[in-house]
Amino acid sequence: MTLLQQFQTNGYLVLDNFNTAAECDALMQRGEELARNFNFDGHPSVFQTTDQAKTSDDYFINSGDKISFFFEKDAFDDKGKLKGDLFHSLNKIGHGLHDLDPVFNNFSRSPQMKKLASDLQLDDYLIIQSMQIFKHAKIGGVVDTHQDSTFLYTEPDSCIGFWFALEDATKENGCLWAKPGGHLTPLRSWFRKKEGGGTEMAILDNTPYEMEGMIPLEVKKGSCIVLHGLLPHYSLPNTSGKSRQAYSIHTINRNTHYPANNWLQRDMREVKGFF
What we know:
By secondary structure, the chain is of the alpha+beta class. Helices cover 19% and strands 24% of the residues. The chain has 7 helices and 13 strands. A 7-stranded antiparallel β-sheet has the order 1-11-6-13-4-3-2. It has a 4-stranded antiparallel β-sheet with strand order 5-12-7-10, with no helix packed on it.
């Protein structure tokens, strides 16, 4: 069975030893450098998947073509001050790393990524979004069950995500969970801009997520997990003493319709693919 056939059957692929330890370390080091140079002015943007529409602000909405910094919801005390140092309070950096930073660009468009994109017949795909996700020890929060196409909606559906383990991902530190074949289900919701300002989560289908059969995708540092946009997946909080850094990119087919009220907007003339 080819990689494409496996992907179409299961809705995901797990590719071990996709990146070297040195490549992962270089990305983590670059993320720390970016965080050190971040001028935190005391007005944090918090990222959480629960009630995202309520916590989205202009900083988040306008981050599609920028390098922006988002905090864990539990990173601040009741006076709005960071409980710990800035780097270990971050949830993620996004969403234009792959286009704006040379280290992240090289990782996103590496020779092995070009080959994988070719194997999966993604010649017409654009990299629309990227994120470095920290999941720090003890503070890294839950990511609720969701479908990536909720956040990168196209007509017809085309979203495909690539999740890179920069460190070992285990059940203890918050690995991904998914169900083989779970992508053969409808898109439940669409996170979009709301008329008059702000965002909303539009319900498209009330079918509940089928949690029975979800399995942990425990992977070693350097692994790549490919995720179909309709595949429900989640991760639990990091309750361990080990961080679980990851990097992800999301892609869409250039020939699909990308609505103007999607929350993430880019000048599509500037968005490039793998080649």
